[in-house]
Amino acid sequence: MIDTQSRERDFPSLKNMTYLNTAAEGIPPRVVGAALEQYARDKLLGMDGRAQHFAQLEAARSLTSELFGLTPTEVAICSCSSEAFNLAALALRLVDGDEVVINDLDYPAGSTPWLQPNCPAAVKIWPSRAGALHVADLIPLLGPHTRLVTTSLVSFFNGFMLSLPPVVEAVRAHSPALLAVDVTQALGRIPLELAGVDLIVSSTHKWILASHGGGLVGVPAARATAWTVPAGGWFHLNNQVPMGPGRLDPVQSQAGAASFAVGMPNFPAVYAIRAALDYLQGVGVAAIDAAARPLVKACYAGIKRLPVEMLTPADESVQAGIIAFRHPEMESIQRKLHAAAIHVMAHAGRVRVALHGYNTMADVEHLLDTLSAALHDVNAG
């Protein structure tokens, strides 16, 4: 993933494209495909395959816990980040008079559960300024009725990376609220420091390079009671009695992270997650960050020289792996980029470039040269 040899071996599809869209879809290494094939072989064993399935689940939870800074018992895997946040809404049991704080840089998974008409809590919006969130703007929104503050560590919209310690300090000093953090756009790309966070959520098909169908959930043991989901099912219940006497008795969920695993695990995704996290741990997230940061710096500097509106703040300390900018003719420009086998995300005039450990300076130079020529053609026209 870091050198030319391992890139060609592990990511052969990158030979034919400049892939700068990991913030939407990660490119899995070969070992993820092999893990899915292993799942298929294990599934052919029928019930005898379940021992292997659950072994993979425990391994995936263990690897996730290392990245989250938790223990395996404080981690669960559900179907996606959206499911995790909707289950979190059930766990909170909000009532009239409660307040929830969201922000305008967050992904819909973390913000829309609180915007549904059946949510009794009042929603307050932490506004960004110049593409960044400032703790000084959060503090006035906090108070005795604040039940939840939820945010992404790295914004999907413009790549802004939040410094968590001041946020934790503000939430603790000015409210009794819980703090939920979506690390989807950070996990696997940058080292995480999540001390003080009460709920950690991530999807699995982006920077960790696994498959769709997974949602990683972390709940510190000290917050297990606060994050216990009152949902039906089987595996996450204390009294697992699917058949026979007692099956219709009242049930109670296990506390904390375990309560988010409400159904039969999506084992194909679990195999992929285990393989992807094992791969990333083998390379080292710190090494990935060290390799990718010079690319981000060069890419940002090159795009900033072009006639576009930058959306990502210039401060390198708040940048992770995403650079975003605007141009009114961007969809036309994206077609030119795609014709040159350059993959970025363009929507409503906003362009998002995402750089991971498998990218190279040649990728950056190809993007800048092609983007510059495309902008020249559009502006000349």
Summary keywords:
11 helices, 381 residues, single chain, alpha/beta, Aspartate Aminotransferase, domain 1, 2 domains, seven-stranded mixed beta sheet, 14% strand, Aspartate Aminotransferase, domain 2, 13 strands
Count of runs of 4 or more consecutive helical residues: 11
Question: Which residue ranges are poorly predicted, with pLDDT under 50 across at least 5 consecutive positions?
Answer: none
Tally of DSSP β-strands:
13
- Examine the coordinates and then state which fold CATH places here, giving the name of the CATH topology of the largest domain: Aspartate Aminotransferase, domain 2
Percentage of residues in helical conformation: 25-40%
CATH architecture assignment name of the largest domain: 3-Layer(aba) Sandwich
Report the β-strand fraction as a percent range. Answer: 5-15%
The general outline is: globular
Rounded mean pLDDT is: 95
Tell me about the largest β-sheet.
Answer: 7 strands, mixed
Estimate nothing, just give the exact number of structural domains.
2
> End-to-end distance, in Å?
40 Å
One letter per element, helices H and strands E, the order comes to HEHHEHEHEHEHEEEHHEEHEEEH
Structure summary:
The protein has 2 domains: 4-20 and 284-374, Aspartate Aminotransferase, domain 1; 31-281, Aspartate Aminotransferase, domain 2 (3-Layer(aba) Sandwich). The chain has 11 helices and 13 strands. It has helices at residues 4-10, 30-43, 50-68, 81-92, 108-111, 135-138, 164-174, 267-283, 285-304, 330-339, 361-380, and strands spanning 18-19, 75-78, 99-103, 122-126, 146-152, 178-182, 199-203, 215-218, 309-310, 322-326, 342-343, 345-347, 350-354.
